[in-house]
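Problem 12. The chain below contains 299 residues. Write out its predicted structure in C-alpha coordinate notation.
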Amino acid sequence: MDKSEKKRQRSDKGPWLLTEETLENIDAVMEKAFNQFSEAEKKKDEKHHSYIEKKLTIGFKDGTSADFKSFKEFAVSEIYSNLKPVQFSYEIDSTYNKINIALMDGWLDRSFQYYVRCEDDNLEDDFIYDINKIYNAAKPNELIMVISKFGILSWIIFLLSLVVIYFVQNNQYKVPIGNMTRNKIYQILSKEELAKEDYLDIIKYKTIYDMGFYSLMENDELIIVRNKLNKIWNHCLITGSLLCLILTTNPKATFAVGKNKPKVKFWKSYYRVIYYFIPVAIILPILISIVSQIIMKYL
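Solution.
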Protein backbone atom coordinates (compact mmCIF):
# COMPACT_ATOMS: atom_id res chain seq x y z
CA MET A 1 0.00 0.00 0.00
CA ASP A 2 1.56 3.35 -1.09
CA LYS A 3 1.41 6.62 0.85
CA SER A 4 -1.60 7.93 -1.05
CA GLU A 5 -3.56 4.79 -0.17
CA LYS A 6 -2.60 5.06 3.50
CA LYS A 7 -3.73 8.69 3.53
CA ARG A 8 -7.16 7.98 2.07
CA GLN A 9 -8.09 5.04 4.30
CA ARG A 10 -7.87 4.13 7.96
CA SER A 11 -8.99 1.33 10.23
CA ASP A 12 -8.50 0.85 13.97
CA LYS A 13 -9.79 -1.86 16.26
CA GLY A 14 -11.03 -1.03 19.71
CA PRO A 15 -14.14 -0.63 21.82
CA TRP A 16 -15.57 2.10 19.57
CA LEU A 17 -18.50 3.97 21.14
CA LEU A 18 -19.94 6.43 18.64
CA THR A 19 -22.18 9.01 20.30
CA GLU A 20 -25.17 10.80 18.80
CA GLU A 21 -22.99 13.86 18.23
CA THR A 22 -20.49 11.76 16.26
CA LEU A 23 -23.25 10.29 14.10
CA GLU A 24 -24.65 13.78 13.43
CA ASN A 25 -21.18 14.89 12.32
CA ILE A 26 -20.90 11.89 9.99
CA ASP A 27 -24.32 12.74 8.53
CA ALA A 28 -23.16 16.32 7.89
CA VAL A 29 -19.93 15.22 6.16
CA MET A 30 -21.73 12.69 3.98
CA GLU A 31 -24.43 15.21 2.99
CA LYS A 32 -21.74 17.73 2.07
CA ALA A 33 -19.88 15.08 0.06
CA PHE A 34 -23.05 14.00 -1.76
CA ASN A 35 -23.83 17.57 -2.83
CA GLN A 36 -20.29 18.30 -3.97
CA PHE A 37 -19.96 14.98 -5.79
CA SER A 38 -23.28 15.59 -7.55
CA GLU A 39 -22.03 18.93 -8.81
CA ALA A 40 -18.72 17.39 -9.87
CA GLU A 41 -20.50 14.59 -11.74
CA LYS A 42 -22.72 17.07 -13.62
CA LYS A 43 -19.74 19.16 -14.71
CA LYS A 44 -17.87 16.05 -15.76
CA ASP A 45 -20.61 14.74 -18.01
CA GLU A 46 -23.38 17.23 -18.77
CA LYS A 47 -24.86 15.18 -21.63
CA HIS A 48 -25.31 11.98 -19.65
CA HIS A 49 -26.32 11.96 -16.01
CA SER A 50 -23.52 10.28 -14.06
CA TYR A 51 -24.13 7.55 -11.51
CA ILE A 52 -24.19 8.61 -7.83
CA GLU A 53 -25.72 6.95 -4.78
CA LYS A 54 -25.73 7.66 -1.03
CA LYS A 55 -26.70 4.74 1.19
CA LEU A 56 -26.50 3.90 4.89
CA THR A 57 -26.84 0.17 5.56
CA ILE A 58 -27.40 -0.78 9.19
CA GLY A 59 -27.03 -4.37 10.37
CA PHE A 60 -29.05 -5.61 13.32
CA LYS A 61 -28.37 -8.19 16.02
CA ASP A 62 -30.90 -10.64 14.55
CA GLY A 63 -28.84 -10.82 11.33
CA THR A 64 -31.07 -8.59 9.20
CA SER A 65 -30.13 -5.24 7.65
CA ALA A 66 -31.89 -2.21 6.18
CA ASP A 67 -30.96 0.84 4.08
CA PHE A 68 -31.45 4.47 5.09
CA LYS A 69 -30.46 7.90 3.80
CA SER A 70 -28.91 8.98 7.10
CA PHE A 71 -28.62 8.20 10.80
CA LYS A 72 -31.30 10.82 11.42
CA GLU A 73 -33.73 8.93 9.19
CA PHE A 74 -33.05 5.72 11.11
CA ALA A 75 -33.39 7.49 14.48
CA VAL A 76 -36.94 8.67 13.71
CA SER A 77 -37.97 5.39 12.04
CA GLU A 78 -40.58 3.41 14.00
CA ILE A 79 -40.38 0.29 11.83
CA TYR A 80 -37.00 -0.79 13.21
CA SER A 81 -37.35 0.67 16.70
CA ASN A 82 -37.41 -2.78 18.34
CA LEU A 83 -34.23 -4.00 16.65
CA LYS A 84 -30.77 -3.47 18.13
CA PRO A 85 -28.22 -2.15 15.57
CA VAL A 86 -24.71 -3.64 15.75
CA GLN A 87 -22.87 -2.33 12.67
CA PHE A 88 -23.20 0.01 9.72
CA SER A 89 -21.76 0.90 6.33
CA TYR A 90 -22.31 4.49 5.14
CA GLU A 91 -21.34 4.91 1.50
CA ILE A 92 -21.42 7.45 -1.30
CA ASP A 93 -20.48 5.86 -4.61
CA SER A 94 -20.32 7.58 -7.97
CA THR A 95 -18.62 7.25 -11.31
CA TYR A 96 -15.54 9.21 -10.21
CA ASN A 97 -15.72 9.50 -6.41
CA LYS A 98 -16.32 7.28 -3.41
CA ILE A 99 -16.52 7.59 0.39
CA ASN A 100 -17.20 4.71 2.75
CA ILE A 101 -17.44 4.92 6.55
CA ALA A 102 -18.11 1.68 8.42
CA LEU A 103 -18.33 0.28 11.92
CA MET A 104 -17.64 -3.45 11.88
CA ASP A 105 -18.74 -5.84 14.61
CA GLY A 106 -17.46 -9.24 13.51
CA TRP A 107 -15.89 -11.87 15.77
CA LEU A 108 -12.35 -10.88 14.74
CA ASP A 109 -13.01 -7.45 13.24
CA ARG A 110 -14.47 -4.82 15.54
CA SER A 111 -13.18 -1.68 13.92
CA PHE A 112 -14.18 1.80 12.80
CA GLN A 113 -12.86 2.54 9.32
CA TYR A 114 -13.13 4.88 6.37
CA TYR A 115 -12.07 5.05 2.74
CA VAL A 116 -12.00 8.15 0.52
CA ARG A 117 -11.30 8.32 -3.20
CA CYS A 118 -11.87 11.52 -5.18
CA GLU A 119 -10.80 12.44 -8.68
CA ASP A 120 -10.09 15.97 -7.45
CA ASP A 121 -7.12 15.85 -5.03
CA ASN A 122 -8.18 19.03 -3.23
CA LEU A 123 -11.66 17.64 -2.71
CA GLU A 124 -10.18 14.37 -1.43
CA ASP A 125 -7.90 16.17 1.04
CA ASP A 126 -10.87 18.23 2.25
CA PHE A 127 -12.97 15.17 3.04
CA ILE A 128 -10.08 13.24 4.57
CA TYR A 129 -9.57 16.22 6.90
CA ASP A 130 -13.28 16.32 7.83
CA ILE A 131 -13.49 12.57 8.47
CA ASN A 132 -10.21 12.51 10.37
CA LYS A 133 -11.55 15.12 12.80
CA ILE A 134 -14.52 12.86 13.52
CA TYR A 135 -12.31 9.77 13.66
CA ASN A 136 -9.78 11.22 16.10
CA ALA A 137 -12.49 12.66 18.36
CA ALA A 138 -14.33 9.32 18.56
CA LYS A 139 -11.21 7.16 18.86
CA PRO A 140 -10.92 5.30 22.21
CA ASN A 141 -8.21 6.24 24.65
CA GLU A 142 -4.94 4.38 23.91
CA LEU A 143 -5.00 2.80 27.36
CA ILE A 144 -8.53 1.48 26.79
CA MET A 145 -7.57 0.12 23.36
CA VAL A 146 -4.58 -1.76 24.83
CA ILE A 147 -6.55 -3.08 27.83
CA SER A 148 -9.41 -4.28 25.62
CA LYS A 149 -6.99 -6.49 23.68
CA PHE A 150 -6.06 -8.53 26.78
CA GLY A 151 -9.44 -10.26 27.10
CA ILE A 152 -9.13 -13.93 28.05
CA LEU A 153 -5.32 -13.60 28.04
CA SER A 154 -5.51 -11.71 31.35
CA TRP A 155 -7.18 -14.73 33.02
CA ILE A 156 -4.48 -17.07 31.67
CA ILE A 157 -1.75 -14.78 33.04
CA PHE A 158 -3.61 -14.55 36.34
CA LEU A 159 -3.93 -18.35 36.70
CA LEU A 160 -0.24 -18.83 35.88
CA SER A 161 0.60 -16.18 38.49
CA LEU A 162 -1.47 -18.04 41.09
CA VAL A 163 0.45 -21.24 40.34
CA VAL A 164 3.76 -19.40 40.82
CA ILE A 165 2.54 -17.81 44.07
CA TYR A 166 1.36 -21.22 45.31
CA PHE A 167 4.77 -22.82 44.75
CA VAL A 168 6.57 -19.83 46.26
CA GLN A 169 4.38 -20.13 49.36
CA ASN A 170 5.08 -23.85 49.62
CA ASN A 171 8.82 -23.18 49.42
CA GLN A 172 8.44 -20.57 52.18
CA TYR A 173 7.10 -23.36 54.43
CA LYS A 174 9.13 -26.28 53.22
CA VAL A 175 12.61 -25.76 54.70
CA PRO A 176 11.75 -24.63 58.27
CA ILE A 177 8.84 -27.01 58.57
CA GLY A 178 10.86 -29.92 57.17
CA ASN A 179 13.60 -29.38 59.73
CA MET A 180 11.14 -29.02 62.57
CA THR A 181 9.04 -32.09 61.73
CA ARG A 182 12.13 -34.30 61.38
CA ASN A 183 13.39 -33.15 64.76
CA LYS A 184 9.99 -33.85 66.29
CA ILE A 185 9.91 -37.38 64.87
CA TYR A 186 13.50 -38.07 66.06
CA GLN A 187 12.63 -36.82 69.57
CA ILE A 188 9.62 -39.13 69.75
CA LEU A 189 11.54 -42.14 68.42
CA SER A 190 14.33 -41.55 70.92
CA LYS A 191 11.94 -42.41 73.77
CA GLU A 192 12.35 -45.82 75.40
CA GLU A 193 8.63 -46.54 75.27
CA LEU A 194 6.09 -45.06 72.90
CA ALA A 195 2.54 -44.27 73.98
CA LYS A 196 -0.51 -44.19 71.74
CA GLU A 197 -0.24 -40.40 71.53
CA ASP A 198 3.36 -40.71 70.32
CA TYR A 199 2.31 -42.86 67.36
CA LEU A 200 -0.40 -40.33 66.50
CA ASP A 201 2.18 -37.50 66.65
CA ILE A 202 4.52 -39.43 64.34
CA ILE A 203 1.70 -39.88 61.83
CA LYS A 204 0.82 -36.20 62.12
CA TYR A 205 4.37 -34.91 61.58
CA LYS A 206 4.97 -37.41 58.78
CA THR A 207 1.80 -36.17 57.07
CA ILE A 208 2.91 -32.56 57.44
CA TYR A 209 6.36 -33.37 56.05
CA ASP A 210 5.27 -35.56 53.11
CA MET A 211 1.97 -33.98 52.06
CA GLY A 212 2.32 -30.34 53.12
CA PHE A 213 -0.70 -30.25 55.46
CA TYR A 214 0.58 -27.14 57.24
CA SER A 215 -2.75 -26.50 58.93
CA LEU A 216 -1.79 -29.27 61.37
CA MET A 217 1.09 -27.16 62.69
CA GLU A 218 0.93 -25.93 66.28
CA ASN A 219 4.14 -23.91 66.39
CA ASP A 220 3.20 -20.25 67.01
CA GLU A 221 5.92 -18.78 64.76
CA LEU A 222 4.95 -20.99 61.83
CA ILE A 223 1.28 -20.17 62.34
CA ILE A 224 2.13 -16.46 62.09
CA VAL A 225 4.11 -17.07 58.88
CA ARG A 226 1.28 -19.16 57.46
CA ASN A 227 -1.30 -16.47 58.24
CA LYS A 228 0.81 -13.78 56.56
CA LEU A 229 1.24 -15.88 53.44
CA ASN A 230 -2.47 -16.72 53.41
CA LYS A 231 -3.27 -13.00 53.50
CA ILE A 232 -0.99 -12.47 50.52
CA TRP A 233 -2.69 -15.36 48.71
CA ASN A 234 -6.19 -14.06 49.43
CA HIS A 235 -5.21 -10.52 48.42
CA CYS A 236 -3.78 -11.75 45.11
CA LEU A 237 -6.85 -13.92 44.51
CA ILE A 238 -9.40 -11.13 45.11
CA THR A 239 -7.45 -8.28 43.49
CA GLY A 240 -6.41 -10.40 40.50
CA SER A 241 -9.96 -11.63 39.89
CA LEU A 242 -11.37 -8.08 40.00
CA LEU A 243 -8.62 -6.81 37.69
CA CYS A 244 -9.20 -9.60 35.16
CA LEU A 245 -12.95 -8.99 35.32
CA ILE A 246 -12.39 -5.33 34.48
CA LEU A 247 -9.96 -6.15 31.67
CA THR A 248 -12.37 -8.61 30.05
CA THR A 249 -15.53 -6.53 30.54
CA ASN A 250 -15.42 -4.37 27.43
CA PRO A 251 -18.15 -3.46 24.92
CA LYS A 252 -18.32 -4.48 21.31
CA ALA A 253 -18.22 -1.70 18.73
CA THR A 254 -21.53 0.14 19.01
CA PHE A 255 -23.20 3.44 18.13
CA ALA A 256 -25.83 5.60 19.80
CA VAL A 257 -28.89 5.27 17.63
CA GLY A 258 -32.13 3.41 18.28
CA LYS A 259 -31.89 0.94 21.15
CA ASN A 260 -28.12 1.47 21.42
CA LYS A 261 -28.42 4.98 22.88
CA PRO A 262 -28.55 3.85 26.56
CA LYS A 263 -25.92 1.18 25.81
CA VAL A 264 -23.36 3.73 24.62
CA LYS A 265 -24.19 5.99 27.57
CA PHE A 266 -23.64 3.11 30.02
CA TRP A 267 -20.26 2.13 28.58
CA LYS A 268 -19.07 5.74 28.52
CA SER A 269 -19.91 5.98 32.23
CA TYR A 270 -18.29 2.59 32.88
CA TYR A 271 -14.97 3.77 31.43
CA ARG A 272 -15.04 6.99 33.44
CA VAL A 273 -15.60 5.09 36.69
CA ILE A 274 -13.24 2.13 36.11
CA TYR A 275 -10.33 3.80 34.37
CA TYR A 276 -10.45 7.30 35.86
CA PHE A 277 -12.49 7.66 39.06
CA ILE A 278 -11.38 4.44 40.83
CA PRO A 279 -7.61 4.89 40.15
CA VAL A 280 -7.81 8.52 41.32
CA ALA A 281 -9.77 7.46 44.42
CA ILE A 282 -7.04 4.91 45.25
CA ILE A 283 -3.94 6.95 44.34
CA LEU A 284 -5.01 10.33 45.76
CA PRO A 285 -5.19 9.24 49.45
CA ILE A 286 -1.76 7.58 49.08
CA LEU A 287 -0.24 10.76 47.64
CA ILE A 288 -1.86 12.88 50.37
CA SER A 289 -0.43 10.53 53.02
CA ILE A 290 3.08 10.68 51.50
CA VAL A 291 3.00 14.49 51.23
CA SER A 292 1.71 14.77 54.81
CA GLN A 293 4.55 12.58 56.11
CA ILE A 294 7.14 14.64 54.22
CA ILE A 295 5.69 17.90 55.59
CA MET A 296 5.59 16.55 59.16
CA LYS A 297 9.19 15.33 58.85
CA TYR A 298 10.56 18.75 58.01
CA LEU A 299 8.37 20.86 60.30
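Discussion. The longest helix spans residues 152-189. Students who got a different answer should revisit the alignment rule from Section 12.3.
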